[in-house]
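hiii, so i know i said id send this last week but things got crazy w the move. better late than never?? heres the sequnce for the chain we talked about at the cafe, plus the structure i predicted for it. fair warning i was half asleep when i ran it
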Amino acid sequence: MAVKLLLLGFFLLICSVALAADQSPLQDFCVADPNSPVMVNGFTCKNPMQVEVNDFFFSGLHLAGNTSNPVGSKVTPVTVAQLPGLNTLGISMVRIDYAPLGMNPPHTHPRATEILTVLEGSLEVGFVTSNPGNNLFTKVLQKGDVFVFPQGLVHFQRNVGHYSAVAIAALGSQNPGVITIGNAVFGSKPDIPADILSKSFQVDKNIVPTLTQYLVYVLKKMFHSN
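okay and structure toks below
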């Protein structure tokens, strides 16, 4: 009986790991149909008879992003939202442009591991492990270097060169999601109560509104840059 329970527990563990990732395709493709009224985990499939070659095509990663914003970076995503043919395939990618001293602020991807390649410039990159260790792993990358950020861990990139930098990153989900730490904590809707943030970060309660207002300003500048 004990052996059966052990095997059952092991089976449930394997199932939970399998279900934690993007669903595997059960056919050649399942092009996303964003107009479907059916709600599923992901997107429903477009009628195969209506699928066309442009459902598997995206153009624009050769174009530099506008880094004229407070953080000095611009992410150009190619997820299922931009490329419907990625639906159920479990991958996506981004181009990231950095102004001199620009950065991609600390953030996480809740549904994907990220592997980044530097195309131009020099980037300081790093990630922080989960509690209780909170260990920082950081390195300066040059053109052609590759670095991986494990799924769900807080990570960042910063241009440490005197010229613009460019990177391409692949992510292990069609919709990896992104949570920018500062924006999420100080820019939530509605606001997280100031006394909670004050005690969490050990700062004066009167500072919190100023931080919140500034993050709102940063978000507006970031999302209105091309």
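btw The chain is about 20% helix and 25% strand. thought thatd interest u
miss u guys!!
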